[in-house]
Amino acid sequence: NAISLKDSYKKDFYIGTALDTNQIAGKNSKEDFLIKKEFNAITAENIMKSMYMHPVKGKYDFTFSDKFVAYGEKHKMFIHGHTLIWHSQLAPWIAEIKDSTEMKALMKDHITTIVSKYKGRINSWDVVNEALNEDGTLRKSVFLNTLGEQYLIDAFKLAAAADPKADLYYNDYNNEEPAKREGNINMIKKIKAAGGKIDGVGIQAHWRLDSPSIEVIEESILAYAALGLKVAFTELDITVLPNPWDLKGADVNQNFEGSAQMNPYPEQLPESVQVKLTERYASIFKLFLKHKDKISRVTFWGVHDGQSWLNNWPIKGRTNYPLLFDKDLKPKKAYQSVLKLK
Ligand code: XIL
């Protein structure tokens, strides 16, 4: 079977996947075959986050990022770096910084060291990840607390100086929703006005069967593209499971592990939900194709259902079905529906 996602969408946009350490080691040969067959872009799922790559002050660990980049080069893939400045999976020593001078020095060292190391090899970067609250205001973080909103401008300037040719992205979730989108647009305008180079916006696209609506996604593609930005869908997956914060009156901190209500399909996905997922993927990709001139990349957050982070988030130990390949690496009906559009 010569047909694949990457070949079918070759003229439209990159089709990517997130990879973690065991995948770049090629330990599972069936999975490795699938990655090479279907995808032409890769994002590091975890290995380039500061807690792993810069765990101690002045000490970088490039063991796995080197392997990740080599894997992408070997297979002629588009390589995306994720992520330079993020409040989460943050090296503990960075979280402790209180002083603005020290934070400025850290940002300069961190961004310059990493981006220049892979200059000309990593094609694009998530320079800043998840800096916004749902209402579009700036999220409190050690970066905002020590440097104010100047940290955003500095981050993009430093990355551009380290590799002028790499595409620089701001990446977030729910940034297709109107309030957050509005905040995102204002923030990007400020960064640009202050001389920061920003080439694109990443919409993570951790979506659900029923939201966001196709209309809201389309408005976002148009709004971001109107700023002259490339639009990338950077972490696409579609959960089919209930989320604790949807339960009226439920305490979201309650321990739902092992709850049958929260893990309704431990063995297999019922046909009716499979149909919904298939239709959802088809309508999303139909929209992507409509705006292919504005979209640079569509990356799935994982290769197959068996290793998706959504089996463990926001509740551990569930069985989710968010991707195009099932846990046995077989293409799902959703995969066929995405291919059929071409
Ligand atoms: C997730 C990974 O998939 C998990 O393996 C890890 O435990 C937590 O982080 N937004 C992001 C990604 O930008 O880096 C996150 O990845 C998912 C949410």
From TrEMBL:
Positions annotated as active site in the UniProt record: 235
An example Gene Ontology molecular-function term: endo-1,4-beta-xylanase activity
Key word Signal present: yes
Reactions catalysed: Endohydrolysis of (1->4)-beta-D-xylosidic linkages in xylans
Record EC number: 3.2.1.8
Keywords tagged on the record: Carbohydrate metabolism, Glycosidase, Hydrolase, Polysaccharide degradation, Signal, Xylan degradation
InterPro entries: GH, GH10, GH10_AS, GH10_dom
GO biological process: xylan catabolic process
Protein name stated in the entry: Beta-xylanase
Organism expressing this protein natively: Flavobacterium cheongpyeongense
